[in-house]
Amino acid sequence: MDYQHLIEEVYQEVQEENLRGKVADYIPEIANVDPNKFGIALVDLKGNVFGAGDYKEQFSIQSISKVHTLTMVFKAFDTKLWSRVNVEPSGDPFNSIAQLEYEKGIPRNPFINAGALVITDALCSKFEKPIAQLTEFINEIAGDTCVKINPDVKNSEKNHGERNTALAYFLKSFKNFNNPIEEVLEVYFSQCAIAMSCVDLAKSFSFLANDGYSIFAERQILSESNARRINALMLTCGFYDEAGEFAFRVGLPGKSGVGGGVAAVMPHKFSIAVWSPELNEKGNSVKSIKALELLTNKLEFSLF
Amino acid sequence: MDYQHLIEEVYQEVQEENLRGKVADYIPEIANVDPNKFGIALVDLKGNVFGAGDYKEQFSIQSISKVHTLTMVFKAFDTKLWSRVNVEPSGDPFNSIAQLEYEKGIPRNPFINAGALVITDALCSKFEKPIAQLTEFINEIAGDTCVKINPDVKNSEKNHGERNTALAYFLKSFKNFNNPIEEVLEVYFSQCAIAMSCVDLAKSFSFLANDGYSIFAERQILSESNARRINALMLTCGFYDEAGEFAFRVGLPGKSGVGGGVAAVMPHKFSIAVWSPELNEKGNSVKSIKALELLTNKLEFSLF
Amino acid sequence: MDYQHLIEEVYQEVQEENLRGKVADYIPEIANVDPNKFGIALVDLKGNVFGAGDYKEQFSIQSISKVHTLTMVFKAFDTKLWSRVNVEPSGDPFNSIAQLEYEKGIPRNPFINAGALVITDALCSKFEKPIAQLTEFINEIAGDTCVKINPDVKNSEKNHGERNTALAYFLKSFKNFNNPIEEVLEVYFSQCAIAMSCVDLAKSFSFLANDGYSIFAERQILSESNARRINALMLTCGFYDEAGEFAFRVGLPGKSGVGGGVAAVMPHKFSIAVWSPELNEKGNSVKSIKALELLTNKLEFSLF
Amino acid sequence: MDYQHLIEEVYQEVQEENLRGKVADYIPEIANVDPNKFGIALVDLKGNVFGAGDYKEQFSIQSISKVHTLTMVFKAFDTKLWSRVNVEPSGDPFNSIAQLEYEKGIPRNPFINAGALVITDALCSKFEKPIAQLTEFINEIAGDTCVKINPDVKNSEKNHGERNTALAYFLKSFKNFNNPIEEVLEVYFSQCAIAMSCVDLAKSFSFLANDGYSIFAERQILSESNARRINALMLTCGFYDEAGEFAFRVGLPGKSGVGGGVAAVMPHKFSIAVWSPELNEKGNSVKSIKALELLTNKLEFSLF
């Protein structure tokens, strides 16, 4: 398969369609990103990199980092984790608090904000220096010292963090939060502020396409069966309340971020990261999703 | 792969675990089924059949028939269908009406009751003799005159049909229902009353494992890409509000019915049907799900 | 108290404010009413009538008739009624079905549509000729053969009745509906189609201002304590999801209808009916509410 | 009217019925109160006090203090207040956060927790020493230096305050919270920890029965029309999701607290406070409500 040609073709076709959305504007650091940025990087199971456009440029990966954190925490707690967070699609917006109330403090899944806060709380319970260790972990599986935490983004997130703080206190009221809220939020906002390039991001997802083994870290990151489970979770819950649509149109497990990035995997084939800042009304990158749809159509395969 | 051996092993292990649930009791015809029935049938892409237990015995496939109807309607309307029904997981029970109100008459997906009613309404718009033609279609893709519609089940469904009737009128109030309600409900309850054996059911799902081509009908049932889309829908929405859990534990696209059946596919490998009447509290067959979980664990593959 | 002068003053001031809303447009018979109609009639406890504007003209009282039906049914069933319908404000729109689902088929109160359907069902259980007997009852307490049921309105209601039909089937699925749905809906739509003038309507509410005794019927309609209870219900639930606002601004028990009418009582003083077709977004008559607010302000009394 | 005789009769009858409920147990200071305490105090418009049982003993008035705070804030902001908080009954439990989400940060009314937090926030915006000034205000309108803030209760409330903290952050995320959250919560928990006797509490409500004029403070506390509005609010929203039931059975404006107290008024007649710690499942005092119901039945009047 000539992935380089394929990616360039996809890149070209998406650019020609001139799709527009709206850059997220809740913090200035995201709002001010050049909306025309667009990059694609694909990494096959041997570690070959194929790229197009701005694929080497760092961007704010935001919620995509929830997959990295979940991986560390899943490794540490295994199935015990699922008493604190469910694995069902949400159907509600990512930051909804109503569902959490109806379901008595057990978030629907680890990728909505409430669930990610529980995961970060679990991270803080198990790791002494959670931010440093998370950074180190991502660097390891990306095979490069690539992770930067943008301090301005982190501070802006913090200053707009009332809703996440509310979720944390609400979780605590249901006894589903164990560490000091301030500490956990510090970690949470730091992980949201991670900047990476498409190529490094795709590399960091490689183990999920490879039955849990990272060719960059040269070790088994998760058991084969737990790696599969993270893929299942991404497929059913990785795109907020548009997860069904993404499965339907694209058919790959993946995770999006409000910075316009999407990371996805085709199991036993490749991992891929796409970035374009303009979002649709569900908060997913318009061009990134289109690129992945074209890609699976051209490849004539998806999961299904 | 020695599928026969595999299936017998799974059958044996599930039997030894002695899992219990509760047979659905809303109609006598379902309530009175022997709770100890248990069958598995797997059909590979060449049409070889592997079976264990009561796999040749007919049972009420109930909601599994929604996949057959959807296939006919999807073929007839293609993408126009998706203006009337969404493709997102529901998160609510299968017969919930609240979500339909919040979302102004557009059901979340074609497998919750409201969505299935829209699909059946669409069937009635396109096919002159919907029940006869649906029966014929299933027979064709199962490669056998196997479908029976149990008249007692149908009448019982009808007599307990107030909630579905309410959903139909509610859809009509949102102009998302085109045919006379009585007529559509007649078809709907008939399709719920279809009885098939595991082996025939697995055969009828074979085209979904085979890029849309049925080796039994010897024709392309759906385009490769639309067959994939039905698989995606089954994965994200096929098990009511337990779809995430099923994806997480089993990782195959599938559809369950309140009669205790589950039909599923492993794309490019096989289709499979399992039946055991006792259900968990979400309405899915306890043993059938366990059997599929064991199977994918033993095979060491799933979608992911 | 010079009620005639007071009412004319109120009438004049409201006219000068030139408040506008939107005439209900779901059926042509309501949509085509002259939007400039405006009438007020006040009836004191001696039966003296004071009126202004179009107070002698008949209009479609719509949901106001729910008070008359409730009165008959409350008399017949007394406290047994409250196992089938609650007495709490709804907070949701009048035709919401979601709440009914969450609360397992027990409507919040007798004035939302679901509750009114239960009341009408109870009417049909107790009265042989429910429409004729309801008409007769209203004529009796209004002291005049005044009630007309507009057949065009009734038929239009029926033709737009899918949502109410859905509610009825939904209630039946919860075993909170005893009579054939068609029959009950016939009565329901008939009662919605009642036409009365402000003066007759005010007279028919007189017993609620008079501890249950009607000076027109010359008999005790309800016990003093049950009459009080209907007033309490009107205060907390009589104006859909604007009941709190009406209590806050006006402070009288009352009931509004989508035809633009409002009937209200000041206990131990008077009953009153106001009519003006243009509605605010909550479905209550803009001018009628304003008129009642001015009235209680000028009188310097309300319930409180 | 021989109020003393009446109250003693009511007291006796309630005691004989031996109604039981459950003392609130979320904080030890409330949980450990003697469940057999029971007191009634009625104050007429001349300031005569009539009492029975433990009516001179202090208890934790909890949410009843929300009426005092609202009075101060309503006086300070007048109608501007209602852009920040609505006046509709809630239908949901007092500490629900879901409704706040659906209604974009505008609480349903000033008596549910979210609304009371907005009111306390407004208090902090207008008053330099909110706790001291609130205390002073209640003392003034009760005609006595009677208010104590129980420091143990306050600290316990604080230690169980995650849910209220979540509500405050959630309000802040909707820009409906202006002061530092810690500061406002300090005031909020202090006001919940106010201890008063029935007699002092009834006196402090006297102005609401008297068109806004306090005979104890010897001044107009609120305009006649605003006093009426607070009564309307208490009637529609004063008893959590049991407000309709209370209006239906008792028919007086009032406010309950989780400590088992209820304060109510009969406009132009009297104010009354009742206390008994055991609560029904909606969180309202079983005996207190029964006592008020008997009282209005015996008096043969209520609002209606």
Automatic annotation (TrEMBL), chains A, B, C, D:
GO terms for biological process: glutamate biosynthetic process; L-glutamine catabolic process. GO terms for molecular function: glutaminase activity. InterPro entries: Beta-lactam/transpept-like (IPR012338), Glutaminase (IPR015868). It holds the Pfam family Glutaminase. Substrate binds at S63, N113, E157, N164, Y188, Y240, V258. Its EC number is 3.5.1.2. Keywords: Acetylation, Hydrolase. Coiled coil: none annotated. Homotetramer. Belongs to the glutaminase family. This is Glutaminase. It comes from Algoriphagus ratkowskyi. The gene is glsA.
